[in-house]
Design a protein that fits this description.
about 350 residues, alpha+beta, Aminopeptidase, 2 domains, 13-stranded mixed beta sheet, 13 strands, about 30% strand, PG_Glycine_Bridge_Synth, PEP-CTERM_FemAB-rel, FemAB family PEP-CTERM system-associated protein, BioF2-like_GNAT_dom
Length: about 350
């Protein structure tokens, strides 16, 4: 009997300008049940929309792709530099078809970080070598299946939260969905006001435009308006039968109108009509208001574990807005005029990643 042919592992950097290579990695992500944030498409949109370069490392054995690590080089004079997987996402990290390739990709990532003079690597996933640092207990994700029809979807929401949705349904609100210029402008206006009220710099609109342009039918905006004025709006991603409301918010008027509650319910219906079977409510800080909001909608928290590496003598950057060192800055940002915050915020937010 002939011995099986074995191939040694070959690691190399990815050429994002090679359409054939990008398509090959997209297939690998799909075949291995990867997340939307592991798609080369995501990294390319982030690079286009924020100016933070995309990097990637693959493992090949013969002609077979067996591992992939997507990375965004996030750089900021305020927050420092880091290789992030994946930049501006809540997931990402190492994706392999063979477990033994995890260490190879991690080692290649540390070598890349040293060549680029980057002090740390952040993986938004639990897959990493044992010696890498573990970050746990800070965030949870919330997902559940969509119901079979509109009424069942409403009844699937627990009683107290359902009562708030019914109030939103009773109000004179208009629902629109799309990815045209009017949708983008409405979303950015609402989102910018929402994050300003939270004391957070707004991302550049070019980020949202790039994601919508690159993702096509796999991303759109749903907006709730009252009296012709956008009140709540969310940009959602669609991946592997799941909808993820990713960048959303509401104005001050949204609370009394129950526009946010109406928005998420309408998104559930909209997503089902697009063929989705699952709703990913996204990540929230443990114990935060959004964490409680999602639990009240009947979603169970799924604790998230992230991994990180820092070069000897270096510390990982800190972009946690709940850190005590940021509290005074957040309160100051809330007091800035909205117009001024919208002009200077994107330059700051590009470095958050």
């Amino acid at each position: 009997m002939n011995a099986p042919v074995t191939h040694s592992a070959k690691l190399r950097a990815v050429d994002f300008g090679d359409a054939t290579e990008v398509a090959r990695i997209e297939r690998f992500v799909a075949e291995n049940d990867g997340s939307v944030f592991q798609r080369p498409l995501w990294l390319s949109a982030i690079a286009e929309g924020t100016g933070n370069p995309a990097h990637g490392i693959v493992v090949e054995r013969g002609t077979t792709l067996s591992g992939w690590l997507p990375l965004t080089l996030v750089h900021s004079p305020l927050f420092g530099r880091a290789l992030v997987s994946s930049g501006f996402g809540v997931g990402g990290g190492i994706l392999v078809s063979r477990e033994r390739d995890v260490d190879l990709l991690a080692q290649a990532a540390t070598e890349l970080a040293q060549r680029l003079c980057v002090p740390s690597i952040e993986l938004r996933d639990a897959v990493a070598p044992d010696e890498w640092d573990t970050i746990a207990g800070k965030h949870a994700n919330f997902t559940r299946d969509l119901a079979e029809d509109d009424e069942a979807q409403l009844l699937a929401i627990p009683r107290k939260a359902r009562a708030e949705v019914r109030k939103g349904l009773a109000n004179d609100l208009t629902i629109t969905a799309g990815n045209g210029e009017q949708d983008c402008a409405a979303h950015y206006g609402v989102y910018a006001e929402s994050v300003h009220n939270l004391g957070t710099p707004v991302f550049p609109r070019s980020l949202f435009d790039a994601v919508l342009d690159r993702f096509g039918d796999d991303a759109d905006i749903l907006t709730v308006s009252h009296g012709g004025r956008p009140t709540a709006s969310v940009l959602s991603l669609y991946h592997n039968g799941t909808v993820m409301p990713f960048w959303g918010g509401g104005t001050f008027a949204a609370r009394s109108l129950r526009a946010n509650e109406r928005m998420y319910y309408e998104l559930m219906l909209h997503a089902r009509r697009k063929g989705c079977t699952r709703f990913d409510f996204g990540r929230s800080k443990t114990g935060s208001g959004p964490f409680s909001f999602k639990k009240n909608w009947g979603f169970e928290p799924e604790p998230l574990v992230y991994r990180s590496w820092s070069a000897p003598g270096s510390e990982a950057r800190n972009i946690d807005p709940t850190n005590a060192g940021y509290s005074a800055k957040i309160e100051l940002w809330k007091r800035l005029p909205l117009g001024l915050a919208n002009r200077i915020g994107p330059a700051i937010a590009r470095g958050l990643g």
